[in-house]
Amino acid sequence: MMSNSLKAHTALLSVNIIYGANYLIAKGLMPDRIQASALVFLRIAGAGILFFILKLFIKETVAKREHGLLALCGLLGVCMNQLFSMNGLSLTSPVDASIIVTAIPIFTVIISYFILKEPLTPQRITGVSLGALGAVLLIYLGNSGLGSGSLLGNVFVFINALSYSFYLVLVKPLMQRYKPITVICWVFFYGFIFMFPFGIQKLLSTDFAIYASTDWIALFYVIVGPTFLAYLLNMFALQYVKPSVSGSYIYVQPVIAMFLVALITYLSSESSYKGDITFNKLLCCILIFIGVFLISSKPLKLFKLKSTS
Questions:
Q1: Nearest Cα to 110, choosing from 300, 250, 299, 295?
Q2: According to DSSP H, which parts of the chain are helical?
Q3: Sign of torsion, CA 174 185 5 131?
Q4: What is the largest CA-CA distance in the chain?
Q5: What predicted TM-score, i.e. pTM, was given to this entire model?
Q6: For residue 217, what are the contacts with CB-CB under 8 A and spacing of at least 6?
Q7: What one-character DSSP code corresponds to residue 226?
Q8: How far apart are CA 98 and CA 256, in angstroms?
Q9: Cα 11 to Cα 5: distance, rounded to the nearest angstrom
Q10: 35: left (phi over 0), alpha (psi -120 to 50) or beta
């Protein structure tokens, strides 16, 4: 029989495989089948409805004074996060997007320092510097003309990662005071309100009559998989593992995205993803990985010596 710890790690692996595959699946829908903002509308509305159905089984009210913070979390963690994520992905390479997103733990450390006054050790400063260097270089490489990357798309994904990092810091005290499903329902509610004017017109102009069965399957996956199902699996896993362990699984996303891009390129000689995987991008990926490792791991001997000298 599988232990709870093993179940948690299986859930986390599944979450990040879902996210990794989503870069390719969502990219395949945009913009020919649906505009990015219209896809965001369906994603937030669909997952929000599913969360509210679950909320019917949990009786918990939120104090009125909390709604300002919940609205801000909805703006950053749902509206801006999704709009910049999908619009960025529609313009750039799935590989670039998946690598930039792995810098979220680095941004979170910086924001936590200023907002929550969490200390920055020499090891964390080194990690932040290396990770930030990798992210900035990767954004710049979007202007190289190789593959399907783009500078604007990479900047959009960067803003998505930054807004989500702010959300993670701001939502932390709310998650400590209320049940996660209660918080996420209100966050999605406010996120939907903020997103509505940006997505409704694009949605109304979408021609669903041209959809093939594979398009409907992909749309269902994007709405349910990386938003609703992934969140539930992550909530389950956090009952048995530390948040730092959960965060480390973000490394799986670019691996999955790179594997799928390489597979598509191998199978199709006309693939638009040719040139998406380069040595320079892999180097940026390694810099970000090292940065996240340094900020999430226990103090290493080298930095212990520095701090005592």
A1: 295
A2: 4-29, 36-55, 67-74, 81-91, 94-101, 104-115, 122-141, 151-177, 180-204, 213-223, 230-237, 243-248, 252-267, 279-296, 301-308
A3: negative
A4: 69
A5: 0.84
A6: none
A7: I
A8: 9
A9: 10
A10: beta
Length of the chain in residues, anyone? 309
pLDDT at 45: 96
CA pair distance 279, 284, nearest whole angstrom: 9
As averages over each run of 10 residues, the pLDDT of the chain (309 residues) reads 82 88 91 94 95 92 95 95 94 86 83 81 84 82 65 92 89 88 94 96 95 95 91 80 68 82 75 73 85 76 57
Give me 176's structure tokens.
Answer: 């400590």
Provide the residue type at 41 as one letter: F
- The domain spans of the chain are 4-308
N-term to C-term CA, the chain: 50
Q: Where do we find the tokens 């009952």? A: 239
Burial class (CB in 10 A: 0-12, 13-18, 19+), 228: buried
What is residue 182's predicted lDDT score, i.e. its pLDDT? 93
Q: How far are the Cα atoms of 162, 199, 222, 240, 246 from residue 82, in angstroms, in the given order? A: 12, 11, 12, 28, 21
Whose CA is closest to 108, among 154, 172, 159, 168? Answer: 168
pLDDT at 184: 92
CB 188 within 8 A of CB 55: no
85: which 2 tokens?
Answer: 């994520």
